[in-house]
Amino acid sequence: QLVLFSGKLNTIAGVVTTFFLLVYATVNLACLALEWASAPNFRPTFRYFTWHTCLLGIAGCCVMMFLISPVSASASLGFLLLLLLALHYLSPSSTWGYISQALIFHQVRKYLLMLDVRKDHVKFWRPQMLLMVQNPRGSARLIDFVNDLKKSGLYVLGHVELQDLDMLPSDPLQPQQDSWLSLVDKLNVKAFVSLTLAPSVRHGVRQLLFTSGLGGMRPNTLVLGFYDDAAPQDGLARHPAFTSAREEVPLGFPPLRAPTTPKLLSAREYVGIVADALKMLRNVLLARQLESLDKAWELR
């Protein structure tokens, strides 16, 4: 109403037109992203719809915005960026899905198909780690160490649950998956999580060695904690990721076994796991006394 009283209707008309053109451009951009991501739920009924028409619509809207008013177009684009940042950092998680995840999935699948294992060369070899973890509470230092050791290669945290699915009403690994993913986020390690059910640890490690990874990205190195009589220590509770925030470890992992409690893994089975990995032409890394490693001191 103040704009009308001031007699500057043409000024506000240009701004409104610029905003409408920006809306049309973002709709075309959303359709372009859905088309490039090959989203299965995106089935446009427009007879002449292609990704070329989306690009043409975006370019046409942007050109018309700057032809109408370069100042208004720049201001509206700046306002759009501020709005996007505010939505990204302040809004709660959406329930309608993220187009970014669909685009990432599409690109990852395409490049994994292009990654040919027959073209591997020793010049470009990189360690791709499968770290077996029985309880993350006693392996926090080892998880950090292997994360530094992987050197831009694949990193998988493996865990074997000793249960029989035939005797259970549902899969017990599904509730644990969130705890493991939260652990990866909290420790800030670039790792995938692979859980399996097996009658023994050795059978479970075999399953993970056979099935972990995808295409040309498969673990070539098995990492195990050393088999000794040392009492397990809860390194997760003392990890800086938790102590700095002054919070407990609410990740749902069970407490560590008491020093007098027998191990789930026998020495014979441990040696059998190493033998299986060597038969599968995997490298084997046995880590010992990682609890005494001071990474901050080593980096000085």
UniProtKB/TrEMBL annotation:
Its main location: membrane. Keywords: Membrane, Transmembrane, Transmembrane helix. GO terms for molecular function: potassium:chloride symporter activity. Pfam families: AA_permease, SLC12. It comes from the Eukaryota. Residues 141-229 form the SLC12A transporter C-terminal domain. The keyword Cell wall biogenesis/degradation does not apply. GO terms for cellular component: membrane. GO terms for biological process: cell volume homeostasis; chloride ion homeostasis; potassium ion homeostasis. InterPro entries: AA-permease/SLC12A_dom (IPR004841), SLC12_C (IPR018491), SLC12A_fam (IPR004842). Residues 3-130 form the Amino acid permease/ SLC12A domain. It is found in: Membrane. It is a multi-pass membrane protein. The chain crosses the membrane at residues 12-36, 48-68, 74-91. The keyword Coiled coil does not apply. This is Solute carrier family 12 member 9. It comes from Charadrius vociferus (Killdeer).
